[in-house]
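quick one if you have a minute, typing this from the bus. below you get a single protein, a line of residues and a line of whole numbers that encode the local backbone shape. could you go over both lines and see whether the tokens make sense for that sequence. anything you notice is useful, everything is just below.
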Amino acid sequence: MNNKNEDKRTDSVQQIYTPPKSFKTVSNELSALFSVFIDARIRQVFRFASVGASGVLLVLFLTWIFTEYIRLFYLLSAALAMEISVFWAFALNTKITFRYKFKKSDNLFPALGKYQLVALGGIIINLALLFAFTTFLNIFYIISELMAIIVAFGFRYLMSLRFVWRNQVAS
């Protein structure tokens, strides 16, 4: 009886994946998951991006005003502009992107606090990239800011969805 079991095991083919093939397999799976997520939420992502685009214009304009006319250091200008845009984006994302209605006005400030924490993470990523692009790559600060905003977009969307409006379904 034991010999039959051994025979079955030796007849089976075992496949070992090399590191490049393992990486490709994992990469393909993550790409498929990302595609399914985006397909399910494409309208919501588009609305979030539209709100973000209006925020980008606000941030770029305020950063330029604070730097060129008020003569603040460009990183401080960008940080102030982003902080102002947090309130703008929170209001628009609540209404337009996630179509959320607060059942109690008491829920507004905790949600704003969560959004502020998410925005703070985005601001840290944004400022680090702004500094790196401007200082090390010698890119004009307004172009650097635009590039940094684009990179931080994904972080902001996923964290907003997960922590601020997590109980909402895609609409």
User: Anything to note?
Assistant: The chain has one domain: 42-164. The chain has a mean pLDDT of 83. The first helix runs from residue 2 to 11.
